[in-house]
Amino acid sequence: MAHSHGHSHGHEYEPDHEHDEEHDELQHCIEECLNCHAVCTMTAQYCLTEGGDHADVNVVGVLLDCAELCQVSANFMLRGSPHHVVTCGACAELCRACEEACRSVSGDERLVHCAEICAACAESCERMATGSESDPGEVEED
């Protein structure tokens, strides 16, 4: 095993070409999606435990939807799928809806935290979906 140095943070490989910035942006978006997946999943569980307004089907439903789509988007990017722009676009939209749902339940800092994580993920996914990394030509269809 060549890579047994134990650091899984950062870059597993360093391609020596002009796509480093694009690679960093992709890596950042994967991390945002995985983080959002985890936070939304835990927040959905928290909301069900709390009950009341927290357990509203619209809040819990969008948390679970957001978590699942974040996982899917991360998987598409991890596999290097050219269709990640599609999942990232949908993911950004769902993250915005989840952010709004979390902010609709007032006075709970765990939901405020979840809303902030969703907003950050949405921003990163929007950048990936619009292809504004460095090559705008990739977005257009031939």
Work out the number of β strands: 0
CATH architecture: Up-down Bundle
Determine the strand fraction and express it as a percent band: under 5%
Shape: elongated
Q: Give the total of domains.
A: 1
Given as residue ranges, the uncertain stretches (5+ residues, pLDDT < 50) are 1-16, 133-142
> DSSP helix count?
4
Radius of gyration: 17 Å
Instruction: Determine the fraction of residues in helical runs and give it as a percent range.
Output: 55-70%
CATH topology: Substrate Binding Domain Of Dnak, Chain:A, Domain 2
Mean of all residue-level pLDDT scores: 84
Based on the model shown, name its key terms:
142 residues; 68% helix; single chain; 4 helices; Substrate Binding Domain Of Dnak, Chain:A, Domain 2; disordered N terminus; disordered C terminus; mainly alpha; elongated
Describe, in plain words, how this protein is organized in 3D:
The chain is mainly α. It has a single domain, classed as Substrate Binding Domain Of Dnak, Chain:A, Domain 2, CATH 1.20.1270. It has four helices and no strands. α1 runs antiparallel to α4, α2 runs antiparallel to α3 (84-104) and α3 packs antiparallel against α4 (109-130). The longest helix has 31 residues, at 20-50. The N and C termini lie far apart (42 Å). The relative contact order is 0.16.
